[in-house]
Write a structure and sequence with these properties.
The protein has 83 residues and is mainly alpha-helical. It contains six helices and no strands. Helix 3 crosses helix 4. The longest helix has 10 residues.
């Protein structure tokens, strides 16, 4: 998991400044779907890595429709404590 954190946080860094990515993420609800999008964009990580980070950040493992971007941004803002 730890070796995948740089790729995960590299992907999460793209979200705030990319409205198209935010919109795409808001169409998904699971870590598997987020990991697939990240891999397509050249930031591969396993869904289990994201689930582990969600747990460490006290975030639910899934997002309600339209809220995945906010969940991922909250996780990104805690990155220093997670690395």
């Amino acid at each position: 998991m730890a070796e995948q954190l740089p790729s995960l946080f590299g992907f999460l860094a793209l979200i705030q400044d990319n409205p198209e990515l935010r919109a795409r993420l808001n169409e998904v609800c699971t870590a598997d779907e987020v990991a697939a999008i990240a891999t397509e964009m050249g930031h591969p990580f396993e869904a289990a890595t994201l689930l582990g980070v969600f747990e460490r950040c006290n975030e639910a493992s899934v997002a309600r429709s339209g809220l995945m971007d906010e969940k991922l941004i909250r996780v990104y803002l805690q990155r220093d404590a997670l690395l």
